[in-house]
Amino acid sequence: MLFEDFGLDKRLMSTVEHLGFAEPTEIQQQAIPVAMTGQDLIASSKTGSGKTLAFILPAMQRLIKNRALSKRDPRVLILTPTRELAKQVFGQLRLFTGGTQFKSVLILGGENFNDQVKVLEKDPHFIVATPGRLADHLTKGHFYLNGLELLILDEADRMLDLGFAKELSLINNKADHRKRQTLMFSATLDHAQVNEFAMQLLNKPKRIAIGAAH
Ligand code: ADP
Ligand code: MG
């Protein structure tokens, strides 16, 4: 299978070509087509297997295809457990949003709160964030998730291990409407709390487990 087979917009394909990847990884091959149908998804594969592009490509494709669907931003929220991971995901996302109309922001714990308020007021299309700080902004009413189309939980197992269950529930409730799509990624699906959360947050999800023992 090739990246061409996904039917991605040609601007996305040119960035993929620029990255020089010969073919999609297994998780990308399985997750991208499912995510592009708009279905909810819970997927696992080991660290280093290419999960970031497995959600960035369908997210970008969705916004390019439905440019005018939502007037209310943000449209895509990507949550990651740590500042370092958020920065890495943001770096990858920027490769794809660069030169497009889509604005993306990074909202991390430990950084200046008021600067983040200003950035959130500019209605970014994409937010990449750690859960604690994002939940803070939501609670204080600095922005809303009423128009959120896509919620992505990267490394859901680690977010839960780090004690972010309360923040994730709050964010989920503030972005709760029927047309939202939710993608959940984890190193393993063998994690009771991940499954419990999947039942709360996802709507009839497709399950993909790469390299699982069963
Ligand atoms: P994970 O989130 O599963 O730990 P990452 O998305 O961080 O994995 O990707 C790990 C590394 O693999 C990154 O350096 C990324 O650029 C690279 N990578 C991603 N997709 C491909 C691909 N299709 N072919 C080769 N390398 C890839
Ligand atoms: Mg990752």
Automatic annotation (TrEMBL):
This is RNA helicase. Belongs to the DEAD box helicase family. Coiled coil: none annotated. The chain holds residues 1 to 214 of 450 of the full protein. Keywords: ATP-binding, Helicase, Hydrolase, Nucleotide-binding. GO terms for molecular function: helicase activity. Residues 1-29 form the DEAD-box RNA helicase Q domain. It comes from the Bacteria. Residues 32-207 form the Helicase ATP-binding domain. A motif (Q motif) lies at residues 1-29. The keyword Nucleotide-binding applies.
